[in-house]
Amino acid sequence: MRKIFGISKTKKEISSFDTPNSHILITGKSGTGKTYTILNLIVQAVANNIPVVIIDTGNSFANNQIPVNVKSFMKDKLLIYDVADKPLPINPFFIGNIEGKKNQKIIEMANRISDILKGCLKLGMQQRNEVYESIVYVFNSNDSITFQKVFDRLEEMKKSPAKTAAEKLLPLITGVSFSDKNDSLDYVLYGNPKVHIFQLSRLSDEVKKIVSDIILFSLMDKLRQNGSIEKNFVLVLDELRNINCGNSAPLTKILTEGRKFGVECICATQFIRSKNTDFISILEQAATRVFFKPNDSEIKLVAKHLSNILREDWKSILKTMPRGYCIIDRGLIADCKEDMAVKVYKNEEILNK
Ligand SMILES: Nc1ncnc2c1ncn2[C@@H]1O[C@H](COP(=O)(O)OP(=O)(O)OP(=O)(O)O)[C@@H](O)[C@H]1O
Ligand SMILES: [Mg+2]
Fold this sequence. Notes:
43% of the residues lie in helices and 16% in strands. By secondary structure, it is an alpha/beta fold. The chain is built from 14 helices and 13 strands. It folds into 2 domains: 4-89 and 180-233 and 246-273 and 286-297 and 309-351, 3-Layer(aba) Sandwich (Rossmann fold), CATH 3.40.50; 102-175, no CATH class.
């Protein structure tokens, strides 16, 4: 779906690039207007009856952060799942349709969860393998499986790697609980279109990554079974630094395969490249790239991305951009420089459209 951002210097209304792979990446330093712009895009999805899933790791979409006029427009469409209050409507240990292949499905699930935990909690290989063994053991010897039971099993094992793995798992056990129902995501994707906010802001950084990986994997799994290019939905990730973006991460799969299932990702980040992060590949996946005033350290990088030949011109434009103004690169050769500089509409201008 084509979404409007705002108006260019030549008074042209500028919207996102409308292709099946219409992911949007928004970057810029703090306070420039990224979240504000995302809210405008969400409003347009809601107006078109498209479901929206927001994974909020930075408290941008907390109940008291959403402007009153936007909230009253969404009314009963707004659903917030706060991990601190009740179980998330997702079963991380779901093994899908098990006809004839139960053992293989258990191995896949245990490997998936152990690998997510290894990556996010920095488990060593032995610790990861103890976690894997515990998941398989608990799954096979209980009616239901939870991270608490996996933790208890690790403690029982009395081996040093298992004990250390249990200690590292503790913030996950104390911070989050999950549903044990397997169909809980169906209504998120295929019920009456709503704005679903998974509120993870109160978790520690590593637990945010674990939980968002679990949500994104479950979404992708559901989409693979039931998604189609016609059933659109918008996925919002406002603070990419809190999301696992590695090569085999669920987000990477969603960005590359999601278009077949109608997913449009809207991602935002303050930095494209910093010590621990590199979102260049995400930048390349996005059909529409939105640059607010960058941090000083990234002005050169963004200017070069916009045009290697005209980078000095772009550098001076980027340096002086006020809040609420951005450069929108839709990869169109025909885009003239004037039409790439956009003043983002105010919330009320979008609401009145
Ligand atoms: N187009 C706009 N029109 C009017 N006000 C705006 C506009 N864009 C941003 N603002 C205001 O500027 C402030 C900062 O915007 P916003 O929260 O979107 O920044 P951000 O880029 O998401 O920052 P951070 O990286 O810290 O999350 C907000 O108070 C917002 O209301
Ligand atoms: Mg923000």
